[in-house]
Design a protein that fits this description.
mainly alpha, two-stranded antiparallel ribbon, 2 strands, about 50% helix, globular
């Protein structure tokens, strides 16, 4: 009898193959957050169509991994680009309200933007895990992410982070400052969500830790 495929687990304190970082900014506008829903509409429209491509690419990658044990680099880079774009928009808009700098329209990495995401391209992936990790193994993580962000995978602007972003906006309006503890927790919640998104999208075999690593930088 063949043993079931094992899931690589990230050791406590280890650096994840998914790296989400942000830069805390002083001096954010007191009022701009009130209209970011309008300013971000072009990005929401583009992300809708990119999301369709993301789903199709993930399906193709599923069969590629099942047959060859590897995630084609061009497909991986596309899905990574969509996740990067999504994180920048969430950071600007109501996922975090962490910056007033308008997100660029690009799938590429933008090193000087205050919200960044990178994922290591795996040399080899398990052919067995690809059958179960995206719907079964990830289920407990998806439930947590839904609570944190109001969505699945990379989440959105709902859940706990949506509440935090709203109160951050109120704090900006009256005090002109984003409360640091609120900010750190918000970024940590998104970090958890994007680790889960990468795992459920077959981009890594490293199971996301049940751990909220808050703050601007990944744990060392």
């Amino acid at each position: 009898m063949t043993a079931p495929p094992s899931t690589p687990v990230m050791a406590k304190g280890a650096v994840s193959p998914v790296r989400l970082e942000a830069d805390y900014e002083e001096g954010l506008s007191r009022w701009l957050w009130l209209v970011k829903w309008l300013l971000a509409i072009p990005h929401f429209v583009v992300l809708f169509f990119l999301g369709i491509g993301y789903l199709l690419v993930s399906i193709v990658a599923f069969f590629a991994i099942l047959i060859t044990g590897s995630y084609p680099r061009a497909l991986f880079d596309y899905n990574l680009g969509v996740l990067r774009w999504s994180w920048r928009v969430q950071y600007y808009a109501y996922g975090t309200l962490g910056t007033d700098r308008y997100p660029p329209f690009t799938l590429a990495d933008v090193p000087d933007y205050p919200a960044r995401l990178d994922i290591d391209h795996p040399q080899q992936l398990s052919r067995g895990l690809v059958l179960v990790k995206w719907w079964l193994l990830v289920l407990p993580q998806l439930l947590i992410v839904a609570l944190l962000t109001g969505g699945f995978g990379s989440g959105g602007g709902g859940g706990i982070v949506g509440v935090l972003a709203f109160f951050a906006g109120v704090a900006l309006l009256f005090a002109g400052r984003y409360p640091r503890g609120m900010y750190d927790f918000n970024v940590g919640a998104h970090r958890w969500a994007y680790r889960v998104a990468a795992y459920s999208s077959l981009m890594t075999d490293v199971y996301p830790p049940f751990r909220l690593d808050s703050g601007e930088r990944e744990p060392v």
